[in-house]
Amino acid sequence: MRAHVSTPAATKAPSVVRNRQRELRRHDQILAAAFEEFAGKGYAETRVDDVAQRAGVAKGTIYLYFKNKEMLFRAVLRSLIHPLFKELGDFVQTFPGSAEELVRDVLSRQYAEIVKNPKARAMFRLLIAESQKIPQLSDVYLRDVITPSMTAMRSLVEKGVASGEFRQTKIADFPQVLIGPAVFAVVWALIFGEREQLDLDAYMDAHLELLLHGLENASPGAGASSKVFAGKEEKQ
User: Fold this and answer.
1) To 5 degrees, how large is the angle CA 166–CA 170–CA 176?
2) In a structure prediction context, what are the per-residue pLDDT tens digits for the chain, which is 236 residues long?
3) Structural domains of the chain, ranges and CATH numbers in brackets
4) CA atoms of 191 and 229, how far apart (whole Å)
């Protein structure tokens, strides 16, 4: 009788790693296909069968990863923009620089991840078009993106007020004001596309200028030490 020879753990590990990598690739492949279907057809008209066909997998394979179409949509949404907002609160709280530097950094991240990101804009358009008919879509966006973003922006203003750089203002009660111009830039791009493009870098500078002038504490001894014009600092 042939003696049983156990397989060393070291020889099993590569196979486990390869399987894991294959699973991750398949997961990403499904998300990419789902994005194309949702963006092109809308949520209501997108079928899991079509996602599976585009991804080159069996329909049942998708259900191994996602319970239903809504869970698939949530995953697509999170894969595009959620990581930025998930980490934004902690980033604001632990940022070591000045409040003005923090505003610059946060705004730059938002423009890079959303305003300048065609895929994020496509999902934004989908939410606008479908949210009245399918409220759970906007609920996902509100919970996963808007609420953490508003909380972080409120903390940003409060942090600047505490340091003396920003004045006490009602903006902390309505942090939507801080991102309003960025939302408008997304809507502009969705409506006009390449026909009437905004210079997004210059536009972001104007947005930054608007924010800092609106928040700046100009009283004697205040922490703010600069003003912004067209994205360039001009020392007082």
Assistant:
1) 95
2) 555 555 555 555 777 777 788 888 899 999 999 999 998 898 889 999 999 999 999 999 999 999 999 899 888 887 876 666 778 888 998 999 999 999 999 999 889 988 998 888 888 888 888 888 878 878 887 887 788 888 888 999 999 999 999 999 888 888 888 989 999 999 999 999 888 999 999 999 999 999 999 999 876 454 444 444 434 444 44
3) 1-66 (1.10.10.60), 69-235 (1.10.357)
4) 28
